[in-house]
Amino acid sequence: MNVSGQNGYSEGKYPEADVMELIHITGLKVVFSTRSEEIRAVDIVDLSIDEGDALCLIGESGCGKTVMGMAAIGILPKNAGITGSIRYGGQDLVAAPERSMKQIRGREIAMISQNSANALNPVMKVGDQIAEPLLIHRLCSQKEAREKTLQLLESLGFENPTQAFDRYPHEFSGGMRERILIAIALICNPRVIIADEPTAGLDAQVKTQILGLIKNQVTNGRTLFLITHDMGAAAFLSNRLAVMYAGEILEIGPTKEVLALPLHPYTQGLLASLPSAGLHPIPGVSPSPAHFPAGCRFSDRCPAVQERCRAEHPVMIAARDSRQVRCFLYD
Ligand SMILES: Nc1ncnc2c1ncn2[C@@H]1O[C@H](COP(=O)(O)OP(=O)(O)OP(=O)(O)O)[C@@H](O)[C@H]1O
Ligand code: NI
Known about the structure:
binds adenosine-5'-triphosphate, binds nickel (II) ion, Rossmann fold, 331 residues, 23% strand, globular, alpha/beta, 12 helices, 2 domains, 4-stranded antiparallel β-sheet, single chain
């Protein structure tokens, strides 16, 4: 068993005996209490991520993807109530006290957050922002932190790392700012990277470059938890795909298999809505997380809806080898 995370296996070649479950999420539920309602943002999720996996969580806006990522790293807003468990190593991250989370965050599990413009400190030199996690975790001296930062900047494509170190975020393009966020996430050499929409708002060429950088991490065996609504990014980066809808997972399996043969009508709809498939969007909108229907949450929009779907909430079932789906069609 390789615990360094650098196992060197290329995509799809994970010998069974060498695979270790790294994160195990069970019954995860996140509810936001607002003045007027309870918002069931994550309701209820079971999910495991093996060491070296690149798991992608895909789904439409508002389905709960970012909240899942924030829960995994313990940065949920104050009005969030969380239940269930997220096992990492010997710990349950849901129950862990903030001082334990501080040890894990950035060092073991790091997040590239969704909004690059807001995630960086506008009045702090980017070099200092990248080096900061090393100093917070007391992993090295200030001098070594600077060296490591310069090396990382270089490996992430900054032509003049010394000059980049002393600049401020606004002096960089969107693509370079995304690289800075990736550097902040990578600096402590964490086991797991959570990347939340890492290519949102970037033009096609820059997007390809950023995906390439993240792909290098995956190829080198780092565990990735990718959050996106970009099917192209999911197909390129992940080996497992979890389709999320209205706070729950509707389908999960090896990415290639899910894309080649989507089982859930929602996944089928998502794929049909891609430009390459002729842009046929799924009619209707997803239900509000304040008022989920009693039956299947996709039933109102589902072309294969049956009477049972409106009355009963389907559970996740094993449909074929290594695939699971939450749909009565496979019952
Ligand atoms: N602090 C909060 N208070 C109340 N509701 C919230 C809060 N944060 C998120 N939500 C709600 O939780 C639900 C899930 O939000 P989340 O940001 O996880 O969606 P998402 O899948 O990441 O969407 P997107 O693709 O747009 O980023 C949404 O209905 C959102 O409005
Ligand atoms: Ni999001």
